[in-house]
Amino acid sequence: MPKVSREHVEARRAQILDxxxxxxxxxxxxxxxxxxxxxxxxxxxxAIFNYYRSKLDLFFALARSDHERFEAVWADEGFEALxxxxxxxDPAWLGVYLEFHRLLRTDPAVARRWRSRxxxxxxxxxxxAQERAAGRIxxxxxxxxxxxxxxxxxxxxxxxxxxxVEVDVEPVVALVREALEPRKEGxxx
Amino acid sequence: MPKVSREHVEARRAQILDxxxxxxxxxxxxxxxxxxxxxxxxxxxxAIFNYYRSKLDLFFALARSDHERFEAVWADEGFEALxxxxxxxDPAWLGVYLEFHRLLRTDPAVARRWRSRxxxxxxxxxxxAQERAAGRIxxxxxxxxxxxxxxxxxxxxxxxxxxxVEVDVEPVVALVREALEPRKEGxxx
Lengths: 189, 189
Hints:
The structure is a homodimer. By secondary structure, chain A is mainly alpha-helical. Chain A has helices at residues 6-31, 34-41, 45-51, 55-77, 79-88, 91-106, 108-117, 122-133, 143-162, 169-180. Chain A is built from 10 helices and no strands. In chain A, helix 1 packs across helix 2 (34-41), helix 1 crosses helix 6 and helix 5 (79-88) packs parallel to helix 9 (143-162). Chain A is elongated.
């Protein structure tokens, strides 16, 4: 077997992931059969599964890459930037996550693996610490409540997108920004 | 054919809907095959489809009943009560809605029918008008922004529930309540 360069391996992986993402978005997770994956990727199943051992491995690799991208946006540009990114995502691809939720509910092994994957959540925790230190986010509400609130909003945006609902994200984001701002006994009775 | 009483018809419909809900929750929308529906409902497909013409009709009847229940809670007891109801819903049943979203995205006829069904949304609009008149909800943000915000939060709760994430709903609801309260230049610089 010829020795392949690192660049070649990387290019192949990118080709496989791009094709798999298109295939999942088009046919759904369950509907992305091996022949459809082969066609969309342009490689035989032997070549594909040489890089990723299973369809689940392919999906996990894509989910990990999304997760890292979203974490980076949140950590570097803030919550509002992430809300805008999600409002622009391909609804068909977001829909694959919804379908995947069913696997999470019904397959304990998949659920365990999914949970063990979540390692870099502290990146957006760093964002909150920094915003608080700068006095831009209130400190009178526990961190976990703020994150529960923000995660719920992001999940809601995902769900609306996949249902084809256009959410006008800017006014909603403005309301969230205000809810997070530090306050000094400012509420009317 | 014997004449059947209205009570009998109602009882039969309830039996069919209850069984169908259990069957959908257990096997998912796609997985709820006719034999499984027959078994869970305890009636032959002839009897079932005498009342509801198709699996889609069954699902729509259940979704309509949920929708009316949720609208009633929102209109009569407010947004917070509805958030608590959703936080208590069966995750398996909520998951059926996620699966159904894929049909909404991929089948224009289903999407049209789903949209035409939404008629009683003005019930929770009435709740907002009443809360504003009583001075309990701010009037400086457009109604549609408030509803986009609240619907996004509810959708996010649904998604978290179906993923098996436990959301501690009370602190989140308290944050939302505060975000909706009327204010008088109360934010710090």
